[in-house]
Amino acid sequence: MKAFLFIPCLVEHVLPRVGEATAMVLSRAGVAPELPAGQTCCGQFAYKRGRPDLTRPLARRFVEIFEDAPVIVSPSASCTAMVRKYPTLFEAGDPWRDRAARVAARTFELGEFLVDKLGCPDLGSRYVARATLHASCQTTRALGVGDATEMLLAAVEGLTLLPLAHPERCCGFGGAFSVDYPEVSQAILAKKIDDIIATGAEAVITAEPSCLLNISSALAKRAVPVKALHLAEVLAGGEL
Q1: Cβ-contact 212, 19 below 8 angstroms
Q2: Which among 37, 117, 24, 41 is positioned nearest to 79, based on CA atoms?
Q3: Phi-psi region of 125 (alpha: psi -120 to 50; beta: other; left: phi over 0)
Q4: How far apart (Å, rounded) are the C-alpha atoms in residues 141 and 171?
Q5: Are 169 and 158 in contact (CB under 8 A)?
Q6: How far apart are CA 185 and CA 183, in angstroms?
Q7: Most-buried pick from 16, 101, 139, 187 (CB within 10 A)?
Q8: Given CA atoms 11, 209, 8, 119 in this order, what sign does their dihedral have?
Q9: pLDDT of 108-132, one tens digit each?
Q10: pLDDT tens-digit profile of 5-55?
């Protein structure tokens, strides 16, 4: 089976290790990853700023690149959710609406694909650590695939998951929200970091790259020795 990799901007430019781990995890699951050239931003930031006119050309570009893909997998719930909104960008009767719908129906977040579509909740992974899970808003509430993340982590040998207080709490990033309301965003983030520290974990895991970057930056500012990891990195294996 072949899967096309949809690598978000944040992963390509800031967290390339997450993209590499995603390819490794898919290979472990018996899926041949393929990285199509010419990928651009999915348009999420413009869309959330109320600019569908700027998002529409990016959606067309995405459809053109991925239209022939048997399945499309991304290590980002928020960017996957954006792709699933593409059909709504085009009026009824516009051919691009149906084309976008067909591509959206074949686009999945990594954990969702492995568990719900591939039926592979145990990859035989090993990662020795005491960690806690930050269940991102986009993974749990936007896509509703948080259970898949938990199932995959529960099967990792050597990984002890510690409960996080207020797991429903946002990390405060929210794309444009953190830009428009930096003081509120930082206050929300501070509570999330307090919760993480209180668990006594060595690591915090999330399936969303934007949360990973936001949380890891805050941990670094406090000089807290807690490693921030993406789900794909844990499934790919390794030790702290």
Answers
A1: no
A2: 41
A3: beta
A4: 14
A5: no
A6: 5
A7: 139
A8: positive
A9: 999 999 999 999 999 999 999 999 9
A10: 999 999 999 999 999 999 999 999 999 999 999 999 999 999 988 999 999
pTM of the model: 0.94
What's the rounded Cα separation, in Å, for the pair 240 and 238? Answer: 7
What token pair was written down for 226? 């807690």
Per the CB < 8 A criterion, the answer to whether 41 and 58 are in contact is yes
Look at residues 136, 128, 112, 130 and name the one whose alpha carbon lies nearest to residue 209: 136
| Closest-CA residue to 184 (of 198, 174, 193) | 174
Cα separation, 180 vs 223, whole angstroms: 26
Q: What per-residue string of b and e applies to 143-155 under the rule 16 or more CB within 10 Å gives b?
A: bebbbbbbebbeb
Q: What is d(CA 48, CA 174) in angstroms, rounded to the nearest whole number?
A: 10
- What the block records as the tokens of 231 is 């789900």
Instruction: Dig out the tokens for 50 from the structure.
Output: 């109320």
195, 205, 199: which is closest to 240 by C-alpha? 205
Copy the structure tokens of residue 7: 């690598």
238: helix, strand or coil? strand
* Residue found by looking up tokens 């978000």 in the block: 8
- On whether the CB atoms of residues 207 and 134 are closer than 8 A, the answer is no
Other beta carbons less than 10 A from residue 5's beta carbon: 20
Cite the beta strand spans of the chain per DSSP E. 2-5, 32-34, 72-74, 107-109, 126-133, 157-162, 203-206, 227-230, 238-239
At 177, list the tokens.
């929200």
β partners of residue 7: none
- Say which amino acid occupies 8: P
Joined tokens for residue 30: 């018996």
